[in-house]
Each structure stands twice: as C-alpha cells, then as structure tokens.
Amino acid sequence: MTKKQADAERGPRLDAGAVVRAALELLDESGLDALSTRAVADRLGVRMNTVLWHVKTKARLLELMADAVVGQAPLDRLPDAWDDRARELVRRYRRALLARRDGAALVTGTYPAEPHTLRFAEALVGALLDGGMAEREAAWTMWALVYFTLGLAQEEQSAAARPRDGGLDRAVSADTHPALHRTLAHLGAESFDARFEFGLDAILTRG
C-alpha cells in the first residue's frame, strides 16, 4: 500500500471509533469467537493494516470495545442514598453487558483504563465511600460487585447454547453429595434476575 492509499483509508471517514463500532456490529452478529481484525477490515472495506493502524492490536481493539460496552451504562439520574445508588449502578452495568452478544465475555477478558470504564468505577467507588466504607473496603467491594456481575452475566449469555440434558441431576446423588443433593433444585435455576439481586444484596449488606 502506498502512503497515498494509506492516507485515503485513514481519512475522515475512518477513525478508531468507526473501527470499534464495526467490531461491535460483528460481535452482535457472529459472537466473540468469530471476531478478528480481518473481519472488521472486510466489513469496513479497508485493508487489515488500516484497522491495525487505528487500534494497533486485536487486544487493544477488545479493550476499546469493552470500554464502549461499559459506556452504555448511563450515570445520570442516580438515587441519592449511597446503597440505592450502588445497586442501580451495578444493575445498569449488567444491562449494558447483556445488551451485546457475548458482552460479558468481552469485558471479562479486558482491563481497560479507558474513559467510560473509569467513569463507571469512579461513580461506584464514590457511592461506596459515601456509605462510610474505608478505602480498601470500597475498592474490594467494587471488585466483588464487578466480578460477580460479569460471571453471572456470562453464564446467562451462554445458557441458551448449553444443552439441557440434566447432566447435573445425573451426576449428583444423595449418597455421594448429600449437601448438593439437598440444594439441587436451586443449583440449576435459571432465574438470573433473582440470583443477581440476591448476590447484589449479599455483597452490599454483608456483616
């Protein structure tokens, strides 16, 4: 590619934001496993090197995509009470993850110190500090909330693809796994909304 061709492809019609938007469209259509810089380039009608010029590496592209997903969690019109504010922030975070195909898996695999992610973290940690938590407690509670939400959202998004063959029912027996057998009816529950609210409450009201 000549410099003139490269400059044309890097012109006003294409920037990092356009690359991320195209990548998110591909994510929704085909899932995270099918996402590649070549596929993004094909969608945009440019060379793969042009995509990499804007985002440098696939890992960097995934970071920018993850930040865009988190950016879909609005930070306005939040409750005044710190605990209600924290709950609402985490609910919005979960909705943002679920709004994109494989959104939770995408965000789980990245650690972007990017504007949307930092703004969300600032709002959540700020709510926890307003509740009287010490600095370490606020930081670790934020991580507990984020990791719990990511894990449950990832399970929810993958549930549709899993066969419902009763494997857990066959593997757990009253003789070998008495405790698991007693709770078996709840272990396979797919009431993700209720499980999310239970975990959210457990983390924020512990002790």
Brief overview, please?
This protein is an all-alpha fold. The chain is 69% helix and 0% strand. This is TetR/AcrR family transcriptional regulator C-terminal domain-containing protein.
First-residue to last-residue Cα separation = 63 Å
Low-confidence stretches: 7-12
Radius of gyration: 21 Å
Mean of residue pLDDT?
A: 91
**H-E string:** HHHHHHHHHHHHH
| Beta strand % | under 5%
What profile does the largest beta sheet have? none
- Report the helical percentage: 55-70%
Decide which structural class fits the backbone.
Answer: mainly alpha
Protein name: TetR/AcrR family transcriptional regulator C-terminal domain-containing protein
Organism: Streptomyces achromogenes
Keywords: DNA-binding, Repressor, Transcription, Transcription regulation
InterPro entries: Homeodomain-like_sf, HTH_TetR, Repressor_TetR_C, Tet_transcr_reg_TetR, Tet_transcr_reg_TetR-rel_C_sf
What topology emerges from the helices and strands here?
Blueprint: H1 3-9, H2 16-30, H3 37-44, H4 48-55, H5 58-70, H6 82-98, H7 103-108, H8 115-130, H9 135-159, H10 167-171, H11 178-182, H12 184-187, H13 192-204
Helix pairs in contact: 2-3, 2-5, 3-4, 5-8, 6-8, 6-9, 8-9, 9-13
Organism: Streptomyces achromogenes
InterPro entries: Homeodomain-like_sf, HTH_TetR, Repressor_TetR_C, Tet_transcr_reg_TetR, Tet_transcr_reg_TetR-rel_C_sf
DNA-binding region: 36-55
